[in-house]
Design a protein that fits this description.
heterotrimer, A alpha/beta (about 260), B mainly alpha (about 280), C mainly alpha (about 290), A: about 260 residues, six-stranded mixed β-sheet, four-stranded antiparallel β-sheet, 10 strands, globular, C: about 290 residues, mainly alpha, MetI-like fold, 13 helices
């Protein structure tokens, strides 16, 4: 029997609206600390929207708003005193398509540190190296830290984005289909990376690739049309789901 | 906690940006206010119907200058529209050819040439040879100024015409020129018209190139080979003169000019939209 | 038969396109031809000559080059922050409903003809500047001078720079800003990332404004005082290349005088072409 870790993120009755259209209906789930939680479901089911609600990235979309409870370590993310900027430092995000800045590899990783006030060159060097190592990219770029980030391959750029996110020492890492734009080899590298990272970070990953979810995650949540259909241990979801819809989806009967 | 400094800087930057919008709109309001206030005050029937009076005498109007401007932009259009539209057709039909790239480049260059330099060119080819200022020379100068705008608009709009239209025409056996002139051009016409009107609005307000091409004329004339008055040059002449009454009239001229340009822009926007709606089934 | 028709079509339309090339080449050619007397007489000394004396036939263009560059650079310093502020506000900060109206209003500034700016300049701006100069204890306090010219040029340049900068910012992928926000950036920090991404194009936008300021004629000549002196003083009247051509062209009594003026026009032609080409290159790089 697996020991469940303490809960890092608690979501209770969370709804989300784009204007008047309700896209998330009463989502309730607990994300355990230092494990990988995967969100699966057909396109448009709301999993991306949900994950972006955790670090309030949806705030930048006009007319979008969420209501309900999203607690991180017991504090409501949507509360009035929440410092959104600080929230986003604590909750890192990696996007579907890698989006490095048009700067050097070093400057990309150092970006988060610099805006948070770190100026000392030695501190920056140290953290940049540590982050690139954690993202399994250090060996490949250590000799060309000042080359442009765009000189890297797609897979490397994505790992750079992961390093960039790790540099500011987040507790949670949100990944929105991080490998969907990558070839199988790069994908494998990312999946291995996720496996290593979970010992230090709470990871929530959105993926449309069920095999990936099965390989990589400890818990899996199945979304459909903005509702959470089923949530549980990954093994259970894939081998022995409770809901028929879940079974249909994971066995490929639709979606 | 996000440092207070960062939050203050972010706020301050946002405020600066909002402030710059105000800073830009202020002169706009200021200028329009004065033009309207002084301009309307100085307008009377005489302004539209009379010729300028001799120096020192009060009264008179800008009838000849108003007509002169209309004639000049008419001449400009006569030159720029056929050349510009056909050139635009060529650029849209053969977009990647070396020749087209050069022509497009030339149009771009032309766009950035100061209008006074174009005036010098028109002086060289239209005034010097006949040793006389003329409306035609002014029209040529303004036409050259219009050219890049007409070319660019035509090319862009022709490109926007859906490929299906062209394929349909060609499939029915139309030659390339047939397809262009009978199907594609008419479809892009409303937009091209807008471009032409916008270009006209722009050149109607030009002064510098006219100073030594169409020059000026205190009298009424419709002879295109003679110098001709224009609103812009007249406003300039009056503005730098020492006479109060002429200053008054300069404001009236400026007001009329701004109204003309506004009218052309509005026609460009709305009437052309009407045309577009007519064109669609 | 269709083949032949297409061929004629290509040649026929091409002829009109060739006309455009001819005009541009013609301008360069004609300007050179009509300034030969001055080129032959003064050579390169023309650009270093400080004396502009039509009576004695001694022509030097330095005062005008000075006035043109000085006024244009000042105008840039004044207009660039404002223009960028507007571009950022409209594309990043303003509520969606305000975007179109604000953009339209800025375009309206661009539609006002130069002569109207000049008129407003003479009768409204110059008296204000004169009062300011008196307050500052400047000597002479004429109102007309470099300061008035710089201010009016700045106002005229703002719409151009800001609309191009706005296009650039629009083309910056939203994923760049998202990346910044996701790393805990404040609003301004995220905007800085966007500006950084489009910096080549934005420099191009600023240069386009510079090119415009260099060639502006009427508004400048009506407020700058038209005095060919070289001075760093903001309050002293000065003279620009475009202004001297506009003022003295029809008064040029002899050919040498005219050729000297046209040679100034030639320089203006070359400088503005160079700047415009460079700026279009920069802008195209980011919007292609």
């Amino acid at each position: 029997m697996k020991v469940t870790n303490p809960t890092k993120i608690t979501v209770k009755d969370f709804n989300f609206y784009y204007g008047t259209a309700k896209v998330l209906h009463g989502i309730t789930l607990d994300v355990p600390e230092r494990q990988v939680t995967a969100l699966i479901g057909p396109s448009g089911c709301g999993k991306s929207t949900f994950v972006r609600s955790i670090n309030r990235m949806n705030d930048i979309i006009p007319d979008a708003h969420g209501e309900g409870t999203v607690l991180i370590d017991g504090k409501n993310v949507y509360g009035k005193e929440t410092d959104v900027v600080e929230l986003r430092r604590r909750v890192g995000m990696v996007f579907q398509k890698s989006n490095p800045f048009p700067k050097s590899i070093y400057d990309n990783v150092a970006y988060g540190l610099r805006i948070n006030g770190t100026k000392n060159k030695r501190d920056l060097d140290e953290t940049v190296e540590k982050s690139l190592t954690r993202a399994a990219l250090w060996d490949e770029v250590k000799d060309r830290l000042h080359a442009s980030a765009f000189a890297l391959s797609g897979g490397q750029q994505q790992r750079l984005c992961i390093a960039r996110a790790l540099a500011i020492d987040p507790e949670i890492l949100l990944m929105d289909e991080p490998a969907s734009a990558l070839d199988p080899i790069a994908t494998t590298k990312i999946e291995e990376l996720i496996y290593e990272l979970k010992s230090n970070y709470t990871i929530v990953i959105v993926t449309h690739n069920m095999q990936q979810a099965a390989r990589v995650s400890d818990r899996t949540a199945f979304f459909m049309l903005g509702k959470l259909v089923e949530y549980g241990d990954t093994k259970t979801i894939f081998m022995n789901p409770r809901e028929k819809m879940t079974e249909d989806y994971v066995t490929g009967r639709f979606g | 906690m996000t440092s207070l400094r960062r939050r203050i800087v972010s706020r301050a930057a946002e405020i600066f940006c909002a402030f710059s919008v105000l800073v830009a709109l202020l002169p706009l309001a200021f200028i329009l206010f004065y033009v309207i206030k002084e301009g309307i005050g100085a307008m009377n029937l005489a302004f539209f119907t009379q010729m300028p009076k001799p120096v020192g005498e009060a009264g008179g109007g800008m009838a000849n200058a108003i007509v002169g401007t209309l004639i000049l932009i008419g001449l400009a259009a006569l030159f720029a529209v056929p050349v510009g539209v056909i050139c635009g057709i060529h650029l849209s039909e053969y977009p990647k050819s070396k020749f087209s790239t050069m022509a497009r480049f030339a149009a771009d260059v032309l766009n950035g040439v100061p209008s006074i330099v174009i005036g010098i060119f028109a002086y060289g080819i239209a005034v010097l040879p006949v040793k006389r200022f003329s409306a035609i020379a002014g029209g040529i100068a303004l036409g050259i100024l219009m050219l890049p705008i007409v070319i660019r608009t035509t090319e862009e709009l022709l490109r926007l015409v859906p490929a299906g239209l062209r394929e349909g025409a060609l499939a029915l056996g139309a030659s390339r020129s047939r397809a262009i002139f009978s199907v594609i051009l008419p479809a892009a016409l409303p937009g091209i018209l807008t471009g032409i009107l916008v270009a006209l609005a722009r050149v109607a307000g030009e002064t510098a190139p006219l100073l030594f091409t169409s020059f000026n004329n205190r009298f009424w004339t419709t002879n295109l080979g003679q110098p001709i008055a224009s609103l812009t040059v007249q406003v300039f002449t009056y503005a730098i003169s020492p006479y109060e009454d002429w200053h008054r009239q300069a404001w009236a001229g400026a007001f009329l000019l701004v109204m003309m340009i506004l009218a052309l822009s509005m026609i460009a926007r709305f009437a052309v939209r009407r045309l577009e709606r007519m064109n669609r089934p | 038969m269709r083949r032949g028709d297409d061929r004629w079509f290509r040649i026929g339309t091409g002829a009109f396109a060739a006309l455009v090339l001819l005009v541009v080449a013609g301008i360069g050619f004609e300007l050179t031809r009509q300034s030969l007397l001055s080129i032959e007489k003064f050579g390169f000394g023309f650009w270093k000559g400080r004396v502009w004396d039509p009576v004695s036939g001694d022509f030097g263009a330095l005062p005008f080059i000075w006035g043109t560059l000085y006024s244009a650079i000042l105008a840039l310093l004044l207009s660039t922050p404002i223009a960028l502020g507007i571009a950022v506000f409209i594309s990043e900060l303003s509520p969606r409903a305000l975007r179109q109206p604000l953009a339209y209003l800025t375009e309206l500034l661009a539609a006002i003809p130069s002569i109207v700016y000049g008129l407003w300049g003479i009768f409204v701006l110059v008296p204000i500047i004169r009062k300011l100069e008196v307050m500052l204890g400047a000597k002479p306090a004429l109102g007309v001078g470099m300061l008035s010219a710089a201010v009016i040029l700045a106002i005229m340049v703002v719409p151009l720079t800001s609309s191009v900068a706005r296009e650039i910012l629009k083309n910056v992928p939203s994923t760049q800003r998202e990346a910044a926000y996701a790393l805990g950036a404040t609003r301004w920090e995220a905007i800085k990332v966007a500006i950084g991404f489009g910096r080549t194009g934005i420099i191009g936008a600023v240069m386009l404004g510079f090119g415009r300021a260099l060639g502006e004629t009427m508004a400048v000549t009506m407020v700058i005082g038209n005095n060919p002196q070289i001075t760093a003083s903001l309050f002293k009247p000065q003279y620009t290349m475009a202004a001297v051509i506009a003022n003295e062209f029809t008064e040029a009594a002899d050919e040498l005088y005219l050729h000297a003026l046209i040679e100034i026009g030639l320089l203006l032609f070359i400088i503005t072409i160079a700047i415009n080409l460079l700026s279009r290159l920069l802008v195209r790089k980011v919007t292609a």
